[in-house]
Amino acid sequence: MILRRRFMADSGMGFAGLAAGAMLATDGVARGDHVAGQHHFAPRAKSVIWVFLSGGYSHMETFDPKPALDRYAGMSYADTPYPNPVDSPLHRKRFRSVPAEEINVRDVYPKIFPMQVGFRQRGDCGVAITDWWPHLADCVDDISFVRNMWTTDNDHAAENQIHTGRHRLDEPQPSIGAWAHYGLGSMNENLPRFVVLGGPTRADTRASIDANYLGPQHAGVPLQLDPQNPLTFGARQAGHSAAQQTDEFRFVNELNRLTAQEFPDDEQLQARIKSYELAYRMQSAVPEAVDMAAETAQTSELYGINEAHSKVAGRRLLAARRMVERGVRFVQVFPSAYGTWDSHQKLRENHSKMCGSVDKPIAGLLKDLKQRGLMEDVAVVFCTEFGRTPGLEERSGGATGRDHHPNGFTVWLAGAGIKRGHIHGATDELGYHALGEGHYVTDLHATVLHLLGLDNTRLEVPGRKRLDIDRGNVISDILA
Predict the structure, then answer these.
(1) What's the gap between Cα 214 and its chain centre?
(2) 254-277 as b/e, with b when 16 or more CB fall inside 10 Å?
(3) What sign does the CA torsion over 182, 477, 439, 379 have?
(4) Are 4 and 134 in the same domain?
(5) Residue 178 in contact with residue 194, Cβ under 8 Å?
(6) What CATH number is associated with residue 204?
(7) pLDDT tens-digit profile of 188-247?
(8) Residue 116: CB atoms within 10 Å
(9) Is the per-residue pLDDT at 62 higher than 70?
(10) Quick check: is 233 in a domain?
(11) Which of 21, 174, 316, 344 could form a disulfide with 178 if both were Cys (CB 3.0 to 4.6 A apart)?
(12) What gap in Å lies between CA 440 and CA 417, rounded to an integer?
C-alpha cells in the first residue's frame, strides 16, 4: 500500500490526499456516529458563502451608527447621562484579556470619539447604515442585521475565534466550515465541499479554515483564481501528458481494486480509491469553476471588477457565486488581506477606503444571487472578528482611531432561510455592550448549520467532549 501511494505521488497525483476529504467522510472513515449527507431536519439552504473582513471593522461606522458619540464627543463615559459601560457586569463577564487585567488598557478608553462618517435610514426596513455603503444600501431590504454579537479575545486571535468559537487560551476546535463539511455530503463529486478564496490570511490564521480533530480531510481547500493553476500542488508534472497520467491512474486503480477484492471490508481502501478518482476529476472541474472568462461585461461591472479598488474583492465574490452554482457546500471568502480593517489610527481614511473596496462587490453578489434565483438556495454571512471602541485610542498619542472591541459588534446575513429587511438586537447608546444576552460567536455557527439542516448539538465525535459554548444557540429571530 505504501509503495502504491508513493507511486501515485510520483505520477503527479500526490494531491489526491486533498481530495480524500469528501471521500473519507462519505465512506465513513474518520467519522463518528453522524452519517454524512443525512440532514437532521429539512434544510433551508443548500450552500453558504461566508464573507470575513479581517482586522475588525467599526460597527459604529458601518451598520450600527451611534449619534450619541457626536453629542458627547470629547467627554468621558462618566460625563454622559448613560451608565458607565466599563462598570457594567457585562464587561467582566465577556472580556478575556491575555495580558494581566491591571495592565490592560484596551477597550476602556474613556474619551468618546465622534463618528467619522454620516449615516441615514435605508430601505423600507429603515435600517440606519453609514454613507460608506451606497451600493449595499440598495440591498438592505434583503438583509438581517444582528447588532448584538460579542466575543472574548481583544486581539487578532479573534480572527480564529469567530471561525472556531474558542479563545486562543482554550483547546483548539474545528472551524465552522469544517463542521459543515463533516456534517454534509457533496452535491458535486468533482469539487471540494469546503472551498476557501483569498485565505487563510496568514500562517497563524490557518485555524480559521482548519478541521482540527475532525481530521485534515475536512479542512478548507484554498483555491487560486488562476484557471491555469488553481491548485498549485495539483498540476501534472512538466512533460507529463494527460494520456500518460490517465494510463497510470488506471493501472494504480486496478491494483487498488484487486486489493479491495481481497479485503472487501477495508473502508479506508474503498475511500482511497474514490479519493483518487475525485482528485483526477478535480483537475478539469476546478479550473473551469474559477475561469471567469465566460462571464459577461455586465457581470464584471456588477461586481466592481473593472475598478482597481474593488477588483480583488469582486473577483473573489464572483468566484464564490460560481462555486455555489456548481454545488460547493461552504465557500469562505476573504475579500481583503490580513488586518486591513484595523484602524487604530486614521479610521476615517482607512474605513472609507476599505468600504469602497467591498461595497460594490458584496452588493453585486446579493443582486446576482437574487436575479439568478439563488437567494432561495444560498445563505450569505458577512462578518468580522470584533468591533471597535466608542472611546478614542490614545496610545502613543493617538487622536484619529479606535482600538479593538469584543464587547459588541454587528454581522449580517441574507438569502436562504433568512428574514429580509430585519434588525435583530442592539448595543447600548454608545455602542459599547451588546444588550441582553447578546450572541457569542458560536450562535452564528449554530444558525448557519441550522440553515443547512444540521443540529450543532448532534455533531459529535466519539472521545471528544464539546462544551455548551461550542454548540451555541440558533438566532431564531432572524429565520424566515
Answers:
(1) 18
(2) eebeeeeeeeeeeeebbbbbbbbb
(3) positive
(4) no
(5) yes
(6) 3.40.720
(7) 988 999 999 999 999 999 999 999 999 888 999 999 998 888 776 556 667 777 777 677
(8) 22
(9) yes
(10) no
(11) 174
(12) 21
Spatial separation of the C-alpha atoms in residues 23 and 185, rounded to whole Å:
9
Query: Which residues is 384 bridged to in the sheet?
Result: 53
Residues 265 and 306 in one domain: no
Domain shared by 325 and 419, yes or no: yes
Distance (Å) of CA 234 to CA 89, 241, 281, 316, 376: 53, 14, 11, 20, 34
Burial bucket for residue 282 (CB in 10 Å: 0-12, 13-18, 19+):
buried
Cell 451600493 sits at which residue? 135
pTM, to two decimals: 0.88
At residue 67, what is the residue type? Answer: P
